[in-house]
Amino acid sequence: MAPYRTILSFLLLFILSFAAQASSILTIGQEAIRLTDFRVEYFTDDSQSLSYEEVRKQTFQETTSSTSLGAKAAVTWFRFTLRNSSLKARALLLHLPSAYHARSVDIFQERSQNLIDQASVDLNDASDHLLMYQGTVVYPFTVPLGETVVVYVRSHVYSHQWFSLEIYDNARSRQALVGGHLDIALLVGILLAMVLYNALLYFATSKSENIFYSLYLISGLAWIALSYGLLGKAFNIYGDAVFVLNLALITMPIFLLLFMMSIFETEEFYPTEHRVLQGMLALLAITLVYGLFDAVGALKPAASLAVLLMVVTFSVGISLLRKGHPLVKYFLVGHTFFVVFNGIAVLYYKGLVAPNYINGHGVGIGIVLEALTLAFIISYRIKVLENIRSKQNEFKQQAATDPLTQLYNRRQIVSEGEYIGEKARAAGEPLSVIALDIDHFKAVNDEHGHHVGDSALVDIAGILRQYSRDTDLVARVGGEEFVILLPGADHAEARSCAELIRRGVERHVVDAGDGLDVRITVSIGVAEVDTAMESVESAVNRADKALYEAKALGRNRVCCSEAVAGGASF
């Protein structure tokens, strides 16, 4: 009889196993319990008023323990059956890690078709609830040896029904609760860093796109922190008070559109695209205003609005690309990430694709990737503006500089002369002028050629730089004429400087090529500016007269001018 009993036992176990699979019964044994992906049943209560007893009689459909059912399943009942085939009773914990986004959660436990326990969590009053731990409802229950329990979970959400059920033993439960949300904290940290970075950029540039970009980032990180439970985990707040923050799903694209209008300057250069963006902006603004009075109603079409937003922004981006905007190609790269990942998320929230990590985190990933690209666009634009500014400064420098000697020209010394004079007058400091002319320069050009004359001018410029100070303003104001303004130098210091220059030129030899050396000299006039009585132009005129006096006295010498009233120009 023993062999027959063994065969019958095997058959019985096979039949029980088959029956368990057919009815989606979870069987647990002695092993560690970590159930995060298993089959459950669900029923959508369209009336939102059925009791536990009434729901037990309804027909349930099969789904997975992590599911998304869209916006038409606000009240959904989930059910699973657990059989204990181990040698002892098993104490387990049911985790509802997405409970933070619900209005309320109710749990019913039955054994042998009798209700043995129930629990309710109202998220508006969940901060101190015994079953609430950092956004996760943790419900303890026991499955006795050889028995079966059926657990019903009623999930009442604000808009979209996306939910998860997990079952752990005590050790695995602690691990799951400690290790969650690190990835979301990282995403929020990245966005916070970019908000700070962009705030610094705004103070440096005062550009409106920096404001819109910052508000876009703040909206994005607010929605990520709320939608993925970081607010509940960090601050233990839930319910209606924080649900309104979901309107960030509307403010975020509003600021994205304003950013596009600003950085691409659509109002000024692309009127057709600007009107399209304005139309989308108006639709979002109307939805936002409506959401201030009925957040749930405003968020129900959020997925459809997201699809429309993607179409509009991508179409405008392509249009601007075809019209040759230099920045839009980078925007399209980042926006492609946003469109792809948010498209996946839209399908997930509508319950059209199976839940997984990418689907459930699509919006957060898309926001961060696009935000990084927008930060690059802002930085790139700053670089472009800096290049333009550098070119402008280069042009200004060229306009103020003698191309041969690279000294300042007459225009620059005229524009800077009076400023330097006013500064010296206000500070009560001395100011002097040196006027210098190369002796017999025409003869150098006629005898040796203009290339030697040009070499002489360049060499003289080098000597002037050598013997002048960093604060002095040195300029070539004519063919062979030079002027030096010496802030802080009195008459004696200016004469000393002029003498050093004269001797330096006298000792210098100009290389005329073919082994020929040319020596030149200069005549110099010096005048101290009477800042209380005369202009710099007048002092330059006096220095120029002293220069001609030096020429009349035989050249290669320094002559000084006494201060007189009056004024003249270069």
From TrEMBL:
The keyword Cell inner membrane does not apply. Pfam families: 7TMR-DISM_7TM, 7TMR-DISMED2, GGDEF. It comes from Marinobacter psychrophilus. The chain crosses the membrane at residues 184-204, 211-231, 243-264, 276-296, 302-321, 328-349, 361-382. GO terms for molecular function: diguanylate cyclase activity. Keywords: Membrane, Signal, Transmembrane, Transmembrane helix. Its cofactor is Mg(2+). CDD domains: GGDEF (cd01949). It catalyses: 2 GTP = 3',3'-c-di-GMP + 2 diphosphate. This is diguanylate cyclase. Its EC number is 2.7.7.65.
